[in-house]
Amino acid sequence: MVHSLPGDVFYPRDENGKYLYHPTDLCATWEALEALKDAGLVKSIGVSNFNRRQLELILNKPGLKYKPVVNQIECHPYFTQPKFKEICDSHDIVIVGYSPLGTCRDSLWVNVKIPSLLDDPVLNSIAAKYKKTSAQVALRFQLQRNIIVIPKSFNPERIKQNFEIFDFSLTSEEMKMVSSLNRNERYVELLMWKDHPEYPFNDPY
């Protein structure tokens, strides 16, 4: 989403500390991705952190050759994105949910006012029933919503546990219980880039 000016500095700033951005044309960028697909260099193309306006900008682009296959966005029981999921579903765009287990507590880029997801009592009570962890319940919830999850971990045991979600299912009532946890608040706000012309989080979805 954020495009810095070309050069050796990863995130260049001016003398006042303001980030310097490279002008971005989302439709032109999408056409470049389409060219990569035509050349056989990629199998599928998609977007990340696009809001509804940005997604519809691509979908309504004159001469569109390929729709986005996926939209990678934050999605977890505290931020279920139900309205945006309906929109993506209507266009056969798969949601890839990042931070499906919540995220770290780094206040530089994370909204730490939201409690830790994995400590949630509802998730933990359901986990106890199935002899699973709250993380496994959160991942199973997304799986049953047909959302791809990409949990991050450096811990081999937790990585193994993240795969062990195919031997149980949540009931429809439990799915409703977890859905009701939605706070419509995101952990990952990326406020340092709020002044970017294409900052996507000003819109509700």
Write a concise keyword list for the protein shown above.
205 residues; alpha/beta; TIM Barrel; 7 helices; 4 strands; 7% strand; globular; NADP-dependent oxidoreductase domain-containing protein; oxidoreductase activity; Aldo/ket_reductase_CS
Q: How are the SSEs ordered, and which strands pair?
A:
Layout: H1 26-38, E1 47-48, H2 52-59, E2 70-74, H3 82-90, E3 94-98, H4 121-130, H5 134-144, E4 148-149, H6 156-163, H7 172-179
Helix pairs in contact: 4-5
Describe this entry's structure for a reader.
This is NADP-dependent oxidoreductase domain-containing protein. This protein has 205 residues and is α/β, with parallel strands linked by helices. The protein has a domain of 131 residues: TIM Barrel (Alpha-Beta Barrel). It is 33% helix and 7% strand. It has a four-stranded parallel sheet, covered by helices on one side. Helix 4 packs across helix 5.
Give a short overview:
Belongs to the aldo/keto reductase family. This protein has seven helices and four strands, in the order αβαβαβααβαα.
Order of helices and strands: HEHEHEHHEHH
Q: How far do the termini sit from each other?
A: 15 Å
Count the helices. How many? 7
Q: Give the helix level as a range of percent.
A: 25-40%
User: How would a textbook summarize the main sheet?
Assistant: 4 strands, parallel
Assembly status: single chain
Structural class of the secondary elements? alpha/beta
- Any idea what the radius of gyration is? 19 Å
Q: Which spans have pLDDT < 50 for at least 5 consecutive residues?
A: none
Overall strand count: 4
Q: What is the CATH third-level topology name of the domain at 69-199?
A: TIM Barrel
- The top-level CATH class of the domain at 69-199 is Alpha Beta
Strand % is 5-15%
General form? globular
GO molecular function: oxidoreductase activity
Organism: Chiloscyllium punctatum (Brownbanded bambooshark)
Domain NADP-dependent oxidoreductase: 22-182
InterPro entries: AKR (IPR020471), Aldo/ket_reductase_CS (IPR018170), NAD(P)_OxRdtase_dom_sf (IPR036812), NADP_OxRdtase_dom (IPR023210)
